[in-house]
Amino acid sequence: MPHPNLNYLRSEILPTIWCPGCGCGQILNCLIYAIRDLEIDMNKIVTIGGVGCMSRAPAYLNTDAIHGIHGRALAFATGIKLANPELTVIILMGDGGCAAIGGNHLIHAARRNLDVTVIVNNNGNYGMTGGQVAPTTPIGGTTTTTPWGNVERPFDLCKLVEAAGGTFISRWTTAHPTQLINAIKKGIKHKGFSFIEVVAPCPTHFGRYVLNLREPVENLRWLREHSVTKREAEKMSEEELRDKIIVGDFVEKRLPTLEERYLELEKKVRSKS
Ligand code: SF4
């Protein structure tokens, strides 16, 4: 009997391009469970990716989809959401597309409180192009472009989006599938800019060169062992938190969305004309 989630996928283009044990598949799976639980009509969903391993995900989902250009997924999302606010717009991207080339789009979409859901696979490197250093690579991380160790501080993506104005912000890892599914559900239901960071394994590059862990299961175990909840983190020192991943839902507040502000403006202009 076929798996019930196959309905959510374009099975004709499977298998995926992803390496065995890659977090991209785990994130896609959690997203499908979230969409299934929320019973959203797949015809009302648009998924958007840029370029990179995670950005390939919209090609596999049975929704209207854009596999666009690197770092510009949020520019497409802004146009689509403003043209048809009834659509559920979900952006799937990697940490490079999100915080490097796409960093400007990210902060402005958050500032505007665009009502979309961004799911970012943070695997700490550029996986698709060979494991180069990214704005999320930890200090000391050995990648193909930092063979002696990375000297740059990584972004805290959730804090970046919070400072820019995001109104739902959450971080989990792929070793927390239940919490991740719940966070995606909350993010989709939230009115406003939802940002879900998923710290996920890239066993082919990050696992192998930064963590020295080759097996996918060892990568997942590492994520679980290095995660602390935001409540646990409150009692820990900066030193104790140095190689830890703080997980939890960090921000949830209701503010007018960009679409709502435009509708309000339209009413005002019409009433004066
Ligand atoms: Fe996944 Fe890394 Fe392989 Fe890309 S290179 S598919 S991120 S494991």
Question: How is this fold's topology laid out?
Answer:
Layout: H1 23-38, E1 45-49, H2 57-60, E2 64-67, H3 73-83, E3 88-94, H4 95-99, H5 103-112, E4 117-122, H6 157-164, E5 168-173, H7 177-189, E6 194-199, H8 203-211, H9 216-225, E7 227-229, H10 230-234, E8 245-252, H11 258-272
Parallel strand pairs: 1-2, 1-3, 3-4, 4-6, 5-6, 7-8
Antiparallel strand pairs: 5-8
Helix pairs in contact: 1-7, 5-6
What does this structure look like?
With 273 residues, the chain is an alpha/beta fold. It has helices spanning 23-38, 57-60, 73-83, 95-99, 103-112, 157-164, 177-189, 203-211, 216-225, 230-234, 258-272; strands spanning 45-49, 64-67, 88-94, 117-122, 168-173, 194-199, 227-229, 245-252. Strands 2-1-3-4-6-5-8-7 form an 8-stranded mixed beta sheet, with helices on both faces. Strand 1 (45-49), helix 2 (57-60) and strand 2 (64-67) form a beta-alpha-beta unit. Helix 1 crosses helix 7 and helix 5 (103-112) crosses helix 6. The protein binds iron/sulfur cluster (SF4).
List keywords for this structure.
alpha/beta, Rossmann fold, 8 strands, 39% helix, globular, binds iron/sulfur cluster
Distance between the termini: 61 Å
Strand order of the largest sheet: 2-1-3-4-6-5-8-7
- Rg calc: 19 Å
CATH architecture field: 3-Layer(aba) Sandwich
Count of separate structural domains: 1
Could you say which structural class the secondary elements and strand pairing correspond to? alpha/beta
What is the CATH C-level name? Alpha Beta
Low-confidence sequence ranges: none
Query: How many beta-strand segments?
Result: 8
Number of helical runs?
Answer: 11
CATH superfamily: Thiamin diphosphate (ThDP)-binding fold, Pyr/PP domains
What is the fold named in CATH at topology level?
Rossmann fold
Mean pLDDT: 96
Along the chain, the helix and strand elements come as HEHEHEHHEHEHEHHEHEH
Ligands in the model, by name, code or SMILES, are: iron/sulfur cluster
Strand content: 15-25%
Let me know the largest β-sheet.
Answer: 8 strands, mixed
